[in-house]
Amino acid sequence: MSGGSALIDLRPLTTSPAFARLWIGSTLSGLGGQLTIVAVMLHVFELTQSTLAVSMIAVAGLLPMVAAGLYGGMLADAFDRRTVALLAAAVTFISTALLAVLAWTGLETVAWLFVLSVVNSAANSIVMATRSAITPRLLPRDLLPAAAALQGVTVGIMVMAGPALAGVLVAVAGYAWTYSLDVLLMTSLFLGLWSLPRLRPEGQTVRPGLESLRDGARFLRRAPNIRLQYLLDIVAMTFGQPVALFPAIGAVLLGGGAITTGVLTAAVAAGAFLSSLFSGPVGRVRRQGLGIERAIQVYGLSIAVFGLVLLAATLGWMRPADTGEDSGAITLIVLAAIALAVSGAADNVSAIYRSTMMQAAVPDAMRGRLQGIFIVVVAGGPRVGALYAGTLATVTALWVPPLFGGILILALVGVLVRFSPRFRDYDALNPRP
């Protein structure tokens, strides 16, 4: 669907059978990965009855995930990327299979759940860094935006369907069957990777190690467009991630409890999914730096609007005079969900441009390391954002972090881009890092 169509461009799937197999495998295995992530959280809570223990799963996995992403990027720039991805996927497969075995035998412990989930996330970081470096070798440059939009579809499916399906499976079939289904779905990723040709990096390679990392850092210093997109993403994720507030918003402010929390979470994913489905015009934009700026500005504005909706709820506007404790204010919940859906769509459009810029402007021999550094940004930004939102909401009110954060995003994006005028002039037909 090319030309002037508003619908997603499916040409990457028909142009490159190898990319199509890899995309299908990544989508199915990603859905399975979401099943395991949610199941492990539920499993840990069942064993400990501690919310703190559940939250520590993400904390424990952060540093290994970042380190693995950086090292995996170096591996992808030194060796055959097909082999690197297959070995990392094998580690993910084994750790998930061990979770299933422990659950089937009744030998699971909190320690084992922590260790295997950390190993799983670290190995998956290597797969992600390597797979992103593989994509430009499978497709012509003009189809990279469409490939990034298809990745948005994958993420939307994972986030919308994964947690809900995991909850149902755990409740109906138990943890063992849930982990086992992930093992089954993960075989599709092996099929996608196994069918790839050998993909050694093009150009001069550097053995993994400190010098390889320094080489990547030196390139980043000479790549103002790539460097700025990292900074813009950090700003957006730090000040525009109110997800940590959703449980309190559902329980205290808007009402509806867990249902409202689920609606708000799903709204973000739904926005990303829909923006990918109607991403045809996105792939035809040449000034992708300007596209990133505008998309993040829309993101900041939508987060600020979400804060205004929470402020309205705090002041008692549009709430029924007599509501039950869990009935919620439907109008406010709908408005909040719309604002979050717009934020998800804007973030996805920004991600399409950022991914395309990374894959088109960065030399092949450097792509793995730059993707590894990007994983640090993607993994660290939302966690810093959760700390910002949680801390500020604790000392002020629930509406303050999104409203103040959205305004701050608009201001910082304007300042950063103003000092980097070449970013707005970035031309997709003549990509420069």
UniProtKB/TrEMBL annotation:
It is found in: Cell inner membrane. Its main location: membrane. The chain crosses the membrane at residues 21-45, 51-72, 84-104, 110-131, 143-170, 230-253, 259-278, 298-317, 329-349, 370-390, 396-417. Keywords: Cell membrane, Membrane, Transmembrane, Transmembrane helix, Transport. Signal peptide: none annotated. Residues 18-423 form the Major facilitator superfamily (MFS) profile domain. This is MFS transporter.
